[in-house]
Design brief:
Elements (H helix, E strand, L loop, with lengths): L3 H8 L7 H4 L1 H5 L2 H7 L2 E3 L10 E6 L5 E5 L4 E5 L9 E6 L8 E4 L2 E5 L4 E5 L9 E6 L11 E6 L5 E5 L15 E4 L5 E5 L8 E3 L5 E5 L8 E5 L34 H7 L8 E3 L8 E6 L13 E5 L4 E10 L2 E10 L6 E6 L5 E6 L13 E6 L9 E7 L2 E6 L5 H4 L6 E7 L9 E6 L2 E6 L5 E6 L7 E5 L15 E5 L7
Antiparallel strand pairs: 1-24, 2-3, 3-4, 4-5, 6-7, 7-8, 8-9, 10-11, 11-12, 12-13, 14-15, 15-16, 16-17, 18-19, 19-20, 20-21, 21-32, 22-23, 23-24, 25-26, 26-30, 27-28, 27-31, 29-30, 31-32
């Protein structure tokens, strides 16, 4: 039975009405305008298929694989066609909430609550007949202790992010840790300090990250670097260091009520979130994500991370960069108006972005009202005027756009409305935005081609989200931005 506490833990949703979430359009813009550039296509699901998508994979023969909440794996032929003509085949069943699928060497690897399993069809009839447990070397005793798995890394490993017991404590082995499972079935502990992760994958540089949910020790949802030997913020999982050979335990625990910027100086193992997603403004229960490697088939956002959100039924973008050895970056609105709670996303070889998931009960705050759905976001071929990327510099930020800006408008410092804030780093659930400041833009210098602007500030605030509102920016052709907001997380300021 699905319990209230289980769903709360899985999705890190606070129980509250969606009144604030329903106003997202006022912050993001119009779903109808987004559809001009990125239309949403529904993938029909037959009524006899109990589809609750939790993970996706693309097979070498061009089929879409879907792992479901109830533990089935379906292969879908025709999902990439326009219009889609899906044909569903049940490949495997009997698993337990599949939140990770990866195909390699003729077999599927599935990540579920209690194990990573290699699933294969040895007689070639299209149905799995062999299930080999690769690793189950972590504790699993109750339904809150879910696991999210990555694709295979270059060495063939699967990285697994393990949620806490009850989402608040760690009663079973390695709960709150990230581990990796080798092709020969060894489990290697990587880092501690997770709370309620909901997606594992790489950035453009091949570095592994996990999505973290808002909650205790986490002021908002965030993208966290799975750094070997690192501590990612929630101390409940300290008790498993004796079982992690080669991973040194931190000498201290974080102080509740402090700030991340203060605690990372006390606690050298503490890895700050790379990208923070301001609550409601940019997601409420962020889920699976995928790197865009479509070589321009999905528009101007190659090398960027695309993320789903369960509660708000949206897809967002994120970019990352390494500064002084620490990862940080920005997040951006992308597409709202999806039909259900999004649990995962996947790119097709044609450059389409699949998004799917489910709702749990009418009492839970999900904007999309369908009980389950698979949808596809296509690129129309038209390029929207957008903030493409923000990168930090010693004296400010380089803001890159998808189209040339109006040089006179872009050179006006008053066009850049930038506020900053951070969160309380504490054992309480979530955090308000605190320590607010308003940045003073001293000058703005557009590039010769108009595709970027160097925005100089009198001061960059370390450990703060820099909240950009560029509502007054226009393109060279007079267009307004499709989305005028972006949010950059400053962990480090460049030395030069």
């Amino acid at each position: 039975m699905v319990t209230t506490r289980y769903i709360l833990a899985l999705l890190a949703i606070s129980i509250s009405p969606l009144s604030a979430a329903e106003d997202l359009g006022a912050m993001w813009g119009s779903a109808a305008q987004e559809a001009k550039y990125y239309p949403i296509v529904n993938i029909p699901i037959p009524p006899e298929v109990p589809m609750r998508p939790g993970s996706f994979e693309v097979l070498p023969d061009g089929r879409l694989a879907v792992g479901t909440r109830r533990g089935d794996i379906y292969f879908i032929r025709g999902a990439f066609e326009s219009p889609p003509k899906p044909d569903y085949q049940l490949f495997a069943s009997g698993q337990d909430e599949i939140f990770g699928l990866a195909w390699k060497d003729g077999a599927m690897t599935a990540t579920t609550f209690g194990e990573v399993t290699r699933i294969s069809d040895t007689d070639g009839d299209g149905v799995a007949d062999r299930y080999d447990t690769l690793a189950n070397n972590w504790g699993y005793a109750e339904g809150h202790e879910f696991a999210f798995g990555s694709k295979h890394d270059p060495e063939g490993n699967i990285w697994v992010a393990l949620g806490l017991s009850g989402s608040y404590e760690s009663h079973n082995l390695f709960r709150g840790w990230a581990v990796k499972v080798t092709p020969d079935g060894r489990m290697l502990p990587v880092c501690s300090g997770l709370r309620s992760p909901a997606g594992v994958g790489t950035n453009a540089q091949g570095v592994m990250f996990a999505i973290e949910s808002q909650g205790p020790w986490n002021g908002c949802c965030s993208l966290k670097h799975l750094k070997q030997g690192g501590f990612l913020g929630h101390p409940a999982s300290y008790n498993w260091y004796p079982f992690a050979p080669g991973v040194k335990a931190p000498a201290l625990e974080p102080k509740s009520g402090s700030r991340m910027g203060i605690e990372k100086k006390r606690l050298k193992e503490l890895v700050p979130p790379a990208v923070k997603f301001p609550y409601i403004k940019m997601g409420r229960s962020i889920s699976g994500f995928r790197l865009n490697q479509t070589d321009g088939k999905f528009g101007p956002f190659d090398g960027q991370i695309f993320l789903g959100d369960y509660t708000l039924s949206i897809v967002m973008r994120a970019t990352t960069e390494e500064i002084n050895g620490v990862w940080q970056g920005a997040c951006y609105p992308f597409r709202e108006g999806l039909a259900t709670g999004i649990m995962n996303v996947e790119f097709s070889p044609k450059g389409q972005l699949f998004a799917g998931g489910f709702t749990t009960s009418s009492q839970w705050p999900v904007r999309g009202k369908e009980p389950f759905a698979i949808q596809r976001i296509d690129w129309s071929g038209l390029v929207p005027f957008e903030i493409k990327e923000i990168n930090i510099r010693k004296a400010g930020f380089l803001v890159t756009f998808t189209k040339p800006v109006d040089p006179q408008v872009a050179a006006n410092p008053d066009v850049y409305n930038i506020t900053t804030y951070t969160h309380i780093y504490h054992a309480g659930y979530g955090s308000p935005e605190v320590d607010q400041t308003t940045a003073h833009v001293t000058k703005a210098v557009p590039s010769a081609d108009g595709l970027s602007v160097m925005v100089y500030l009198d001061k960059i605030m370390e450990d703060h989200i820099h909240d950009f509102d560029l509502a007054r920016m226009t393109s060279k052709e007079g267009e307004h931005l499709l989305h005028n907001k972006a949010y950059y997380t400053v962990n480090e300021i460049p030395n030069n």
